[in-house]
Amino acid sequence: MFKFARVLAVAGLLAGGASFAHAADTAAAAADVKAKSDNKPDLDLPPMSEDKTVRQTIQLNGKPLHYDATVGSIKVRDAKGKVIGEVVYTAYVVPGSAPNRPVTFAFNGGPGASSVYLNMGAIGPRRVQFGAAGDAPSDSSELKDNPHTWLDMTDLVFIDPIGTGFSRSLEEPAKTKTDFYATEPDIKYLSRIVYDWLVKNGRLRSPKFLMGESYGGYRAPRIAYELQTQLGIGVKGLIMVSPYLDPAAIGDDTALSPLPWMINLPSMAASHLETQQQLTPAAMRGIEAYTRSQFATDLLAGRSDPAAVARLVDKVAGLTGIDPTVVGRLDGRLDINTFLRELHRADKKIGSVYDSNVTAYDPFPASAERKSGDPILNALIAPSTSAMVDFVTREVGWKSDTQYKALSYEVNSLWDRGVTQDKPVGDLRQAMANDPKMGVLIAHGYNDLSCPYFASALILDQMPAAMAAPARLAVYPGGHMFYSRDGSAQSFKRDAQALFSK
Question: Can you give 108-138 as a three-state secondary structure string?
Fold first, then answer.
């Protein structure tokens, strides 16, 4: 009986062990299924094309320049390793170069803009014309050799943030907004994209440069600081093009602070001087001196001092070319929208906020308020989009069945700007303090009223004296996209060469 009982007990133990093992296997399988489910993207989208590379050649300074053009993608992962997005980039690399050849990463702004504007308008090896007077949506989108390309002095990588170009989120809309459409995560994942491209292409030894236009100018110093302090990547130089460096200073048309009015006036005056063919650096220095002194004093005096208001009205009307009666109704506080409409009212045209001397006919000239879009913005979307999509899909052979977004208004409207609006200037100071050898070039167009150059001038003036030396402000004829003018593009490249040769 005892032996039988023992046998039964052993049999029971074995049976129990088998049941336990089965349960463990079941739990493990369930965990594996859950893990795979957790790592599966929220959206079931067709896979992206594999990276594609083609050899191309342009004529530069009378000589052939051969390069490899690549369109590829880099995955964005969350903290658990789940793929949550895919960033598409366009790279131009001169083959056979030394491993220490410079490489420049370029971002546009918006938020919501792809990098096509810097790529095919400014420094890429080929360009399509946009952003200048006379450009129209129906203009040819044929690419031509860019005589002002930077490819002879640096390899180029143009990055399209999520929601722009062909780059895409793989998450539901609410998570996409949290993980991509906000200032802080934007800096984090784009910094990692730079890091991943360097590792993927074996370029960690290369001197690294960052370039950002407009809101890309907000990104560039912050990415530099993130790379320095969090990812272990040193940055040799920063190039900020028409940067949106201090959003708080720009303010609005009801601003109590004199800063927004001070920042806008020199660009308004430059536009008027250009129409008179009198725009020179010397003329602008006098206007800047007035803006820093009597203009600011009279603004602060306000209606408590009628003489100050009278001086303000007279001087502002004279500098901007706007009817003194109009300026008088505004007590000398000439806002951007009024200026852009009044400057060309006699011709029934409106100026662009990106270059106030680039105009379009006002479709509603009798309306008390402007009802039309921006002349430059409306004209550049078609040629830039068509040129880029044709290049990517036909020339390079990288295929996609999704729409290319040169400029996404949806991304811009969803963007969470948070409470860190002062971060770019603070991060710029810290990045410069960390690395005194890092060069900084801030470039603007005189006529730009979206990101006026005088804001950057005032910011640099407040830099600690010991840190000011590596930073240089350059201002050229033109507007936000001053590089659309050949003379300004040539001067811009010459100034950049000094940065790359340091």
Answer: CCCCCECCHHHHHHHHCCEECCCCCCCCCCC
The answer to whether the beta carbons of residues 245 and 456 sit under 8 Å apart is yes
The string of DSSP codes covering 386-398 is HHHHHIIIIII--
Cα separation, 345 vs 363, whole angstroms: 12
For 371, other C-beta atoms within 10 Å of its C-beta total 11
**What does the pLDDT look like over 156-190, one tens digit per residue?**
999 999 999 999 999 999 999 999 999 999 999 99
Q: What confidence score (pLDDT) does residue 249 get? A: 64
By the 8 A CB rule, do 90 and 70 touch?
yes
Using only the alpha carbons of the chain, give its radius of gyration.
Answer: 28
Element holding 319 (H helix, E strand)? helix 306-320
Measured CA to CA, the distance from residue 472 to residue 207 in angstroms comes to 20
Stated as kind and residue range, the H or E segment containing 72 is strand 63-77
Spatial distance between the Cα atoms of 167 and 114, rounded to a whole number of angstroms: 9
| Interval 383-404: pLDDT, tens | 999 999 999 999 999 999 889 9
Question: What pLDDT is stored for residue 468 in this prediction?
Answer: 65
Domains of the chain, CATH where assigned: 52-248+381-500 (3.40.50.1820), 252-374 (no CATH)
> Is this structure's pTM higher than 0.90?
no
Residue 18 pLDDT: 39
CA gap 357, 398 in Å, rounded: 38
Over range 242-262, report the average pLDDT: 76
